[in-house]
Amino acid sequence: MSYYERHVFFCTNDRGEGAERPSCNRCGSQAARDHAKQRVKSLGLAGEGKVRINSAGCLDRCEEGPVCVVYPEGVWYTYVDTEDVDEIIDSHVVGGKPVERLKI
What is the spatial distance between Cα 96 and Cα 101, in angstroms, rounded to a whole number? Predict the structure, then answer.
């Protein structure tokens, strides 16, 4: 058994201004991760045996970003706003059903 039922990693890498490649944090990924963490806590889903929301360094899919990945399934997502993040939480993290329209 895994320590967490689901583990969600949000790329929060920031390459800085003038970088050749985009970076997820320049697309608001830190705020999206903060929102997801708070939402999971408010739903009573945080903690051992439940759900963990984490920041990650570069996940190397920045051109498709911002990105997050949900384990143990290994499903990759992009998102635009907190409504997309809520849909990932409600459908996949809680309901076990990946959000097809946001998958990359």
Answer: 15
33-37 average pLDDT score: 98
Q: Is 30 exposed, middle or buried (0-12, 13-18, 19+ CB in 10 A)?
A: middle
Q: What is the structure's pLDDT at 2?
A: 78
If one counts every other C-beta atom within 10 angstroms of the C-beta of residue 3, the result is: 9
- Which token pair is 81? 């706003």
Tell me how far CA of residue 53 lies from CA of 18, 38, 44, 48, 80, in angstroms: 29, 9, 13, 12, 18
Topology of domain 6-102, per CATH? Answer: Glutaredoxin (3.40.30)
Residue 81 predicted with pLDDT over 70: yes
| Nearest-angstrom CA–CA distance, 91 and 97 | 5
Domain positions in the chain are 6-102
pTM: 0.93
